[in-house]
Amino acid sequence: MKFSFSWLKAHLDTTCDSTEIADWLTKIGIEVESIERPGDAIAHITLARIVKANPHPHADRLKVCQVETFDGLKEVVCGAPNARIGLVTAFVAPGQVVPITGEKLKNAIIRQVESYGMLCSAGELCLGDGFSQEGILEFDPALPVGTSLADALHLSDTIFTVSITPNRSDWLSVYGIARDLAAAGVGRLIEKEDVIIDVKIPCLTQVAVDSAAEKDCPYFVGRLIKGIKNGPSPQWLQERLRAAGQKSINAVVDVLNYLLFDMGRPMHAFDSNTLKGSLHVRHARQGESLLALNGKDYQLDSHTLIIADEAVPLSLAGIMGDQASGCTLETTDVFLESAYFDPIQIAKTGRTLNVHSESRFRFERGVDSAEVLKGLEKATHMIVEICGGLASEVVSSGKAFQHEKSVTLNRARIIAYAGLDIPAAPQILEKLGFKHAEGTAPKWGAQPTDRDRVEVITPPWRHDVSIEQDLIEEVLRIYGYDEIPETPLPLSRPKSVPSSQGGIVRRVLAGRGLMEIASWSFIPEKVAQLFGWTDPQLKLINPISQDMSVMRPSLLPGLLTACQYNLDRAQERVALFEVESAYESIQIEGQRLMAAGVRCGVTHSAHWSTPTKSNTIYDVKADVWALVEGLGLNTQALRLSQENLPVHYHPGRSAVIIGPNNKSLGYFGELHPQVAKALSLDKVCYVFEVYVDAFTAVAQKKSRSLLTLHPLLPIERDFAFLVEHKTPAEFLFKAAKKADRKIVDVTLFDVFEGKGIEPGYKSIALRVLIQPQEANLTDADIKNISDAIVAAVEKSCQGKLRT
Amino acid sequence: MLDPNIQRLIDSIGQADSLETLEAHKVALLGKTGLLTGALKSLRELEGEGRRVQGERINALKNQALSAFSERGTFLEAKALSARLAKEWQDMTLPSFSQPQGKLHPLNNAMEEILAIFGQMGFDLAEGPHIEDDYYNFSALNILEIHPSRQLMDTFYLPAERDGRTLLLRTHTSGVQIRSLASQNPPVRIVSTGRVFRSDYDQTHTPNFHQIEVMVIEPGIHMGHLKGLIKEFFERFFELQDVAMRFRPNHFPFTEPSAEVDIQALRSEGKVTLGEGDDWLEVLGCGMIHPKVLENCGVDSNKYQGFAIGMGIERLAMLKYGITDLRSFYESDLRWLSHFGFSSLQAASCGPRVTA
Question: Quick one: B161 and B54 in the same domain?
Fold first, then answer.
């Protein structure tokens, strides 16, 4: 909502300046988005008169003008065709800023003639639309030289741009805003004067609201004005509309637009010579359509409320009229319409047809029900004054009514809610237009008592007040939110907001060198398919773009996009992770808290002591292992499987992580080459995903089991086994470990294929740590354990000891 | 008689010029066939007073030798060490190797800091699902189906129902109020953070973002407490000693009275400094919980009242950490993450007010 300071002052007698007004608006709940003076950019520019215009000696199209300026007579070279003797125009002196360049003007020599300053066009002054773009500006020759350009253009006014909350339809009018400012003590409200219309003719066009439409349109009035002379509206009206951000169209339309912004009353004018018979407010019939003023064709149905004549629909009631019956400069007879339309009906129609207008905006929020007729009278008065014509009697359908409610306010409730007493509450409500119901005492003493309560009737322009709390807000906002005392919250025992599993996971992964990112929860459908998405219920009905249409089944798409983004920026080491939700279904439990990561490129940058190494599967495996340990689960309890891998994993270079109870805890491995290709990834990516929510919160016990530290030194023995290529190392490992209870640790320190090893086989070397328990081991004891290891490995995976 | 070489050798210990020569001396005097060892052995051949006198002489010589060896040894060791140290040198300016360190995203860091502050003030943590239904997201919060404010939210919808209710992506964390009150009765102090979604994408909006929701329903709680808590939170989170705030009346369907809160700020050259200047920055929305919302949760609104606060976490993080572009949170640029990210070793700050 936009309006000028002078417009506001037409309704509010105040001594405040515009900054003070802005502060008050903020205090009473009207958010001020900006205060601007459009004239500021041209404030330094003044008017000058051309007294002589001679041809330029060296250029046909230029003139050398003698100009009478604020600074005396000057010689200015000008190329405008309309530069002529006697013309009063805008003059920029040397040293002053030219709005279009933003730079100070210098004396210039144009074709060997010196020019002191510049005569300006609307374009050079950045005045925008609404001014002739041809030649230099032309002003009333009666205006004296030195007049401020801003004054001459009436641009010295301050423009307020405010944002109105959806509950306050009454603030969608300048008068409504003035009313609340007056209630807050900012000035005196200048009451609207009732106008009296001299009825000269009967109204031949009759109006009727269909009985089925009475609920949606309880009151409808109209009148004819014959013999008008439509034309441009007067300067002051055009200026106010410009302040409201509206274009001037013609006097009739401008008057109605003006009253919409001035008093918040939307109305409509038909060219009555286009109407056939009487007007009806009714619901549309299937198949009817309407070409609206915005140029769009709307298909109507039985839910749309329309105004129609005997032949066709003429307007989407309360929203927008059609093109054929609209008022033009040629219109001589108009039919004015003013009505009350049900907010829900308007909102539904507006939403169904997706049609927006200032009128809809007000009706769907609720307009002042007491102003239906007053609006019509005011509009008639203005049109007759500007365009002449004869006004008819008023025709109507339905009954005038006032939208009002009775609400009670207890003084004790104010104190309980606000933490302070406001003895003047009844008077504040009165200033806001609330009426005291009969029999209630509107005066409260200095000390609150239980009997202090008022019952008030809401004003017809307030649709947002229905309960006691609403009245508390009214009283409080006028009294001032600033007055509410800052009170400490009563003490409460601190809660250790649990160090969440997500928090642990994030710290473990960042500690391992991965950078945390945040990516979108929705991804392109095609990408989702690559990651196994099939459920159509997880596809948004109204995505912001096709690239953000499916709720992600995995965090990897976002991570991989980020990975390529950074590779494109010449990063050689990319290691990223995210801990957020992925979605398996629309069910609440289908939202899974996941940790996922990607590693690509080298593990670290080139370094003199530590050679660079590429990331491998075993780096992401280490990430997962650290993460699992961080969540309190022993990695020894994990099992890996290559069955049931998600489709985006390389089938031979990836694994499902299976926890105790055979629950899948996640996956890690190499991204499937086809997926990598589809995502245009330059490099091999190693990835992992872990279901963080599959881990039950494990708090490490503070009390530990008994510990025995063996006094005897442990013994190390190395073994190398020959096994088939595809034998999992884990088999050897587990077999060796179980061979004897004195074996406390097994380390795999070498894997070798190639020279000296039979093709299809590999050599795996294990180092076994044996802990003597009661006494040192004899050679025979050690041999027994070694034999047991060899036998166990042979049994579990046909491993042969290499000798 | 004693071998005169003994005295000579002892006297020359001080001239030994290396630890090796010294060792050779030691062998010559005290080794198995050393002169002093031999002299001691020869004592056996003497008796009586002669043996005692000779024994004392030899022992005196031995003590003299040992102390000379020790003194010379210490000297030579020190000399050798200085010689070694003079030769040993390494370039201390060579860069050491350290494993690359990751960092935590500022968004999550801000969330942790916020939760820590509210945890200290006795708040419980609550959570709600991203895929929410229209009851929890709208109806229960007194946002009527046809009311313009429901369309203002720019909601994303899903083509499905759950429990017979239309599904959508939650547009705010306020629905957590309803879910919490469904499972526990007042008095309650609840805080919730998480991801929310709105169909808006430009310089100052991203289609998913994060919010924090705070709710207090306790006997005697009024708007003064709401103001007090917000001030306390600002001072702790922004580490400011005293912060000017502006409470502006506003409208939210789920609170009455409602307010928006601005914080004092100085804007200059693209940077925002809080607690200075004469500009105001909008930071949050809040208000007394609407009686209809309480009734929708089965809470007697005549008996209980309380307040709720909703804040955008990106906004708070931008102000605290000096981040100027909202969209950069989701761009995942390593240079940005490295600059604005937080060490994993640093616990989320929840310390008392800064007083210095």
Answer: no
> Contact A518/B330, CB-based, under 8 Å?
yes
B117 and B81 within one domain: no
**Which pLDDT belongs to residue A770?**
96
Convert the pLDDT of each residue in A157-200 to its tens digit: 899 999 999 899 999 999 999 999 999 999 999 988 888 898 98
**CA-CA distance, B216 to B229, in Å (whole number)?**
10
pLDDT by residue (tens digit) across A434-460?
Answer: 998 877 767 898 899 988 999 999 999
Q: Which residues of A touch B345 (CB under 8 A)?
A: 507, 511
A72-85 tens-digit pLDDT: 899 999 888 888 99
- Is there a domain that residue B93 lies in? no
B176 and B317, same domain (yes or no): yes
Mutate to test the interface with B, among A167, A505, A583 (most CBs of B within 10 A): A167
CB atoms within 10 A of CB B251: 21
Q: Do A516 and B104 touch (CB under 8 A)?
A: yes
Q: Compute the average pLDDT of residues B213-233.
A: 95
Q: Do B82 and B115 sit in the same domain of this protein?
A: no
Whether residue B95 is contained in a domain is answered as no
> Per the domain annotation, does B302 fall within a domain?
yes
- Dist CA A616 CA A601 (whole Å): 9
In this structure, is residue B97 part of a structural domain?
no
Encode pLDDT of A747-796 as tens digits.
999 999 988 899 999 999 999 999 998 889 999 999 999 999 999 999 99
Determine the structural domain holding residue B80 and report its residue range: 4-87
Residue of A nearest to B206 (CA): A520
Measure in Å the smallest separation between the Cα of A614 and chain B Cα atoms: 14
Q: How far is A561 from chain B (nearest CA, A)?
A: 9
Q: Enumerate helices (H) and strands (E) in chain A, giving the number of each.
A: 19, 42
Give per-residue burial for A205-237: e unless 16+ CB within 10 Å, then b.
bebbbeeebeebbbbbbbbbbbebebeebeeeb
Contact B256 A470 (CB under 8 A): yes
Q: Which of B158, B217, B226, B254 to mutate to test the interface with A (most CBs of A within 10 A)?
A: B158
> How many distinct structural domains can be found in chain B?
2
Contact between B288 and A417 using a beta-carbon 8 Å cutoff: yes
Answer yes or no: do B309 and B206 share one domain.
yes
Residues of chain A neighbouring B260 (CB-CB closer than 8 A): 31
Counting one residue from A and one from B, how many pairs have CB atoms under 8 Å apart?
A: 262
Q: Identify the CATH number of the domain in which residue B198 sits.
A: 3.30.930.10
Cβ neighbourhood burial of B229 (10 Å; 0-12, 13-18, 19+): buried
Residue A494: its chain B contacts at CB < 8 A? 119-122
Residues B60 and B127 in one domain: no
Straight-line distance from the first to the last Cα atom of chain A, in angstroms, rounded to the nearest whole number: 91
- Neighboring chain B residues of A472 at a CB cutoff of 8 Å: 256-257
Task: Please state the ipTM of this predicted complex.
Answer: 0.88
User: How far is CA A30 from each of CA A163, B285, B288, rounded to the nearest angstrom?
Assistant: 6, 15, 19
